[in-house]
Amino acid sequence: MALTHLAYFSVALLLVCAVPRGFLGDLQGAQGTVLVIGTLGLWRYSWAALNFTRALYFKLRVYPRWRKARDIRFAGSTARHHCYFMVTSYMVDQDTTLPVYRSIFRAAMAARDGATIVASVVDGMDERLIRDIYRNMKIDPNHVALEIDRIKANGKRDAMSQALRILASFSPNHNDILVFVDGDTLVPEDVWARSAPVFMDGKTGALTTDEAAIIDTEGLFKDWFKLRFNQRQVMMCSMGLSNRVLTLTGRMSVFRADLATDPSFVRAVGQDFLDHWRLGRVNFLTGDDKSTWYWLLSRGYETAYLPDVQSRSYETQPSDSFFDSSKTLMVRWFGNMMRTNGRAIRRGPRDMGFFTWWSILDQRVSCWTTLVGPISVAIAAVLVTPSVIPLYISWVMLTRYMFCTYIAVFNREWFPVTHPFILYFGQVSGAIIKTFVLFRLDRQKWTRQGSSGGSGKVMAFYDRLKMAESTAHHGLAYAWLTLAILFLNTLE
């Protein structure tokens, strides 16, 4: 590993040496490009430094005290805290279903005040397998109740809303908790013991935890997921300081049970939508984790983060190539983000706090600012001198290495030399995809399901017209961005 990192810096140095002598002195007309990239870089790096500082302060100082105080308060409580689990499984292979449900049953057995599990499945084989696991583990049915909801394959939102209605029939109270789990995610055995004390604070509506990916095959896809989850830990810790995370991850999050079974919450999960000025009504097919998050945000509830509790999910590559796989996943993830981002921004900072509101706004702004650097360099290379290209590549290599270093230090593990390249790829391709979905909020697709589409049944001509409009608006936005960069790059 040391040799690969040494080679990395050697390449960065060689790229600087490839720049003609004297170019760095007068920049040969590329002053505007350097000024634009430097100014934006200063802004983005200061924002990253702020989040890193907040994350460190939360993880090392605030969270340990916060956890200790709530544990003490919880130990003195005589209230019962029943643990409910809602598990959704669709097209998950048996090799994954076995360890996942074993982990869920172990967590349920460890819940001091009993547990109830509602599993939503489509395939009869899954139902039989889950019941076999339950019997073979010799679970006390008086302590852990299992109910399986066999449904048609109408999508995850429909499965969740049906399961929540079943859970509502058990009349959970304000002290009970409800764990949302995907059928490919391993649940920590102490999830009840670590989560229940958090809800002693009546302002807390839900919490989410650290995540890790289980990927057997070595390669870029595994490195990409590792870096994403390490970045996520930093950002979640930063947001945890405000007690308002930016998403309640669908793989595993914990909710106050009476809130999650509220009829309006169930409707938000099953029938969330967006009224768009151009696209009309966009019914949400994916993004249930954003719907649940927004429901709590709009009602003033806080959402906590537990950095020392970790769920682990089995991740499979959707396509043969890393590029196609990452694109498929990012289109879904960022589409979910953008469909909820606008309405969250419109709520303003008064109820959620300025930092949380600004972080949501930054999601919308950063997809454009990230593209300024590559576009500026491309313009300068064509109109001024191609010497800016090796200089820019070297700059990217050094700055992304710096980012990967502090992410690694925060997570206490070193990184492979692929991470700086993957980080830059994720930033630029992510920005392009965010702008793509921003103008096409009606386009949605699950990774495992064929569900896609927009707002209801419409004529094929209208679909084509909307696609043409989206392309025109997207192209116009890029044209204005390029013109603005051309103007700034001419500044002396």
Low-confidence stretches: 454-458
Question: What is the 3D form?
Answer: globular
Number of helical stretches of at least 4 residues: 17
Mean pLDDT, all residues: 91
Q: Tell me how many strands there are.
A: 10
Structural class: alpha/beta
In helices, the fraction of residues equals: 55-70%
The Rg value, from CA coordinates, equals: 24 Å
Distance between the termini: 43 Å
Topology as a string of helices (H) and strands (E): HHHEHEHEHEEHEHEHHEEHEHHHHHH
Q: Describe the sheet with the most strands.
A: 8 strands, mixed
Strand order of the largest sheet: 3-2-1-4-7-6-10-5
- Which range does the strand content fall in? 5-15%
Secondary structure elements and pairings:
Elements: H1 2-17, H2 23-26, H3 31-75, E1 83-88, H4 94-110, E2 115-121, H5 124-136, E3 144-150, H6 156-168, E4 177-182, E5 185-186, H7 191-195, E6 204-214, H8 220-240, E7 252-256, H9 257-260, H10 263-270, E8 273-276, E9 280-283, H11 288-298, E10 302-314, H12 322-346, H13 349-352, H14 354-383, H15 388-411, H16 418-438, H17 460-489
Helix pairs in contact: 1-15, 3-8, 3-14, 4-5, 6-10, 8-15, 8-16, 10-11, 11-12, 12-14, 12-16, 14-16, 14-17, 15-16
